[in-house]
Design brief:
Largest sheet: 6 strands, mixed, barrel
CATH superfamily of the largest domain: RlpA-like domain
Order of helices and strands: HHEEHHEEEHEEEEEEEEEHEEEEHE
Strand order of the largest sheet: 14-18-15-17-16-19
Radius of gyration: 60 Å
Number of helices: 7
CATH architecture of the largest domain: Beta Barrel
Oligomer: single chain
Number of domains: 4
Length: 411
């Protein structure tokens, strides 16, 4: 600003005017400085202005002159500094715009996604939707989203494989962005919260847990008792054994169909086992076949022992005695069928005539007072629940007489 001239007596009024309008002049000065700086940065000069005005009561005129422009080197330095500052903030400062804007911007640069199956190229049909031919995964919206270079990763499972170009930060975000649903027990390798690294190979493992109920039989025990009323050498089942029933709840854990473990989670007994009770006879009886050794030469007795002679059932019969002579069989010595039973066996002590409809031929028996025998003969008078015991002599047969008793049918 240049002062042209002013009388001495008017300088006092000028000083007072400046004092009164100091705040207004200060604001106008800052505005002029800002305008000059902006135009100088761009290399522009404001047009000259004529007299801006005169102060009241003074013939003083104020003329604006062109401000000197900012030097070119200073303008270049300032532009370089601003550009460098912008690129520095690009990698470290959170995005000032939303993730939706970033998705719209980067969708044009999406990389091609390859979907291959276990056997090679081509698209694999699986339970997940992997039909998009191009896919770029972006980080979820939020202040933590940063600008960075895209990473190529591969997500695979037992029956699928997906390659994606992604900007997400964690494994969980990559799996979710690829449209792969995880079950409650499913897991991934690396872990879901692991950060995404370059060329990461993510493995999705399907975990399934199942349970089944199964019944198992618990074997019963054996208990041995002694019966004084049972003939010596015989055993009889008093109580049948019953196995117990155990119910198991089995849990099975599989990963991609392979069994990881199978364990019994719970078990309880539905029925307790019941022991089998077997009675062994201790009663000693007299008779020609009372001892087992006397029956060794009879059919079907050559290999039995007292432990194998179990009582199958007990029958109440009428027992008589007979011999090979004419009084019992009507045959005499010299007769071709003398001393031969109806089924062709040689008649001897231990051979018992029976009704084959009631007791089959070859059945082993034990007759108290007579001993061990085998059903090997029949007769016209032996019908129903009657038996006839063979003796060597007529006197022994007559001595037996006729008795009603219980006989033991043996195994």
């Amino acid at each position: 600003m240049k002062v042209v001239s002013a009388p001495q007596n008017r300088l006092v009024g000028l000083s007072q005017s400046r004092t009164l309008h100091r705040s207004e002049q200060r604001g106008q000065g800052w505005r002029r400085l800002a305008d000059s700086f902006g135009r100088g940065l761009l290399g522009l000069r404001p047009p000259e202005q004529a007299a801006l005005g005169t102060l009241p009561g003074l013939p003083l005129q104020i003329r604006a002159t062109n401000s000197p422009a900012v030097p070119l080197w200073m303008r270049l330095l300032l532009v370089i500094a601003l550009v460098g500052l912008w690129f520095g903030f690009q990698r470290t400062v959170p995005l000032p715009f939303t993730a939706a804007d970033l998705r719209t911007t980067l969708s044009a640069a999406a990389s091609t996604v390859s979907v291959t199956g276990p056997g090679g190229g081509g698209t694999v049909a699986s339970s997940e939707a992997h039909s998009a031919p191009n896919r770029v995964l972006l980080p979820p919206p939020g202040p933590e989203a940063l600008i960075g270079s895209a990473k190529t990763i591969r997500i695979s499972g037992k029956d699928f494989a997906v390659g994606v170009c992604t900007h997400v930060l964690t494994v969980e975000q990559a799996i979710s962005g690829a449209g792969i649903a995880l079950g409650a027990l499913d897991r991934a390798e690396p872990a879901l919260m692991a950060p995404i690294a370059e060329a990461t190979d993510i493995r999705v493992i399907r975990v399934r847990q199942s349970q089944e109920h199964r019944q198992e039989y618990v074997p019963f025990g054996h208990r041995r008792v002694y019966d004084p009323d049972l003939p010596l050498g015989l055993r009889q089942q008093v109580q049948a054994g019953v196995p117990g029933v155990l119910v198991l709840r089995i849990e099975t854990l599989t990963e991609d169909g392979e069994v990881v473990y199978r364990k019994v989670a719970e078990n309880h007994m539905v029925n307790l086992p019941r022991s089998a009770v077997v009675a062994y006879g201790t009663k000693r009886l007299a008779g020609p076949m009372a001892r087992l050794e006397a029956a060794r030469d009879l059919p079907r007795y050559d290999s039995v022992t007292s432990d194998t002679l179990a009582v199958r059932r007990v029958l109440r019969v009428e027992a008589t005695g007979y011999e090979a002579g004419p009084r019992s069989t009507g045959k005499r010595p010299g007769d071709p069928w003398y001393g031969v039973t109806s089924i062709g066996w040689q008649a001897k002590p231990g051979i018992i005539a029976v009704d084959p409809k009631m007791i089959g031929y070859g059945t082993r028996l034990y007759v108290p007072g007579y001993g061990f025998g085998v059903a090997g003969d029949s007769g016209k008078d032996i019908v129903g629940m009657k038996i006839d015991l063979f003796y060597n002599t007529e006197q022994d047969a007559a001595r037996w007489g006729r008795q009603n008793l219980s006989v033991y049918i043996l195994e």
